[in-house]
Amino acid sequence: MTARAYVTLVTNADFARGAAALLRSLALTGTTADRVVMHTGGVPRSALAPLEARGAKLCEVTLLPTSDGFNQRHARGALHAAAPFTKGGKPAFHTPLDNFAKLRLWQLPYDRVVFLDADTLVLRNIDRLFDYPEFCAAPNVYESLGDFHRLNSGVFTARPNPATFEAMLARLDAPEAFWRRTDQTFLQDFFPDWHGLPVTMNMLQYVWLTLPELWSWPDIHVLHYQYEKPWQAHAKADRLRVLIDLWQAYAGDWPVPDAASLPAPA
Question: What are the b/e assignments for 50-81, b being 16+ CB within 10 Å?
């Protein structure tokens, strides 16, 4: 039988909060695939215990063996100065360099993986994605249709392989390499002929604000809370209240609403 797993990455206690909600959402879809949480040394044991309680297999990983120059270029201050985020706010706990640890999934002992960022919720079963080829991702659409040429790495399909991982390392830390949006930019470069998933497989929360005509609750399979997180206090919270309340329901232990019954964007 093919070994399959949903995989996420947790690099601090905040993202562990997100992963707990994600794990519950996966369980409620009825999937029988493994649920794996790769975690780095920056996550306290107290933050990992709830993830085990929700059925996760924990896999400790280290950051990639990148050069000092690479690390300096991709440190939070340097990266945000060179490639500022102008459309939304990244939380203080966002550490760009940690994002590259996502590539460790190509070392996992699975035949097929669906990766999900820790700030996503799976609203409907997506097991069919295990049968999709490497590399499938949805476009990074949240502001205009002009975004369709860029992928978003919050949801993607992969086939773990040590040879792929070694090839990635060789390209990642090339002299003066700078990946403007870290793993996202790198993966699009590494898989230039990536296969497009529908936006409903990775619906970015800003679509609610900027492209409401794309929003269809009955069709959304994965909801992705890009930029501001639903467990934060932030300036857009009132406008995103429906989405935040949905995340809070999954984060807790009470019943979750049927997404198809939720209101449409105003």
Answer: ebeebebeebebebbebeeebeebbeeeebee
According to DSSP, the β-strands at 151-158 and 112-116 are antiparallel
Residue 52 within a domain? yes
- In this predicted structure, what is the pLDDT of residue 261? 92
Q: Is residue 266 part of a domain?
A: no
Is residue 93 pLDDT above 90, yes or no? no
Query: Nearest-CA neighbor of 58 among 72, 70, 41, 76?
Result: 41
Question: Three-state SS for 233?
Answer: coil
- Identify whether 163 is part of a domain: yes
- Determine which of 91-100, 128-137, 151-160, 240-249 has the lowest per-residue pLDDT on average: 91-100
* pLDDT one-digit tens code per residue, 44-86: 999 999 999 999 999 999 999 999 999 899 887 766 676 665 5
Whether 73 is in a domain gets the answer yes
> For all residues of the chain together, what is the average pLDDT?
93
CATH number for position 23: 3.90.550.10
Nearest Cα to Cα of residue 181 among 202, 203, 150: 150
Domain, as residue range, for 16:
4-261
- The tokens for 236 are 């857009």
How many domains is the chain built from? 1
Distance between CA atoms of residues 54 and 51, nearest Å: 5
Q: Answer yes or no: are the C-beta atoms of 161 and 137 closer than 8 Å.
A: no
Residue 2 one-letter amino acid: T
Nearest CA to 34 out of 160, 199, 166 is that of: 160
